[in-house]
Structures are given as C-alpha cells and as structure tokens.
Design brief:
The protein is mainly alpha-helical and 68 residues long. Helix content is 57%, strand content 0%.
Length: 68
Amino acid sequence: MDEFDRAQELEAFHLEASLAAQAAASRPLGASLAQCDDCGEAIPEARRQASPGCTRCIDCQTLSEAGR
C-alpha cells in the first residue's frame, strides 16, 4: 500500500464520518429507534438505553464498524 492508497482510505473515512454526523444532526436527539435502520429487526431496550440515539442493532453496528 502506498501513500496514495492511504490518502484515499483516509479521505473515505472522513467522508463517511462527515455524512454520519450530518445524518445524526438531522435526527431528533434523545430516543433511539425501536428498529434497526439496516436490517429492520428490533433494537433491544438495553442497547437503546446504553447507547441513546443508536440507529442499528449490535450486529449491524459491528458490521458497519468492521467495514471502515
């Protein structure tokens, strides 16, 4: 991997973070979603309380973070 590849990865990471921040800013603060944005399954109450504002179930969040 050369410097150009690393620069592209860094740019993609920052773009994804910026888009996620914009999406989060457009949602009302407070309550989490009851269903996962990605798979549509119910988000457990314990997760919604532990991570206010979450929009994904644990499995989908793990997959999302692994893709970075």
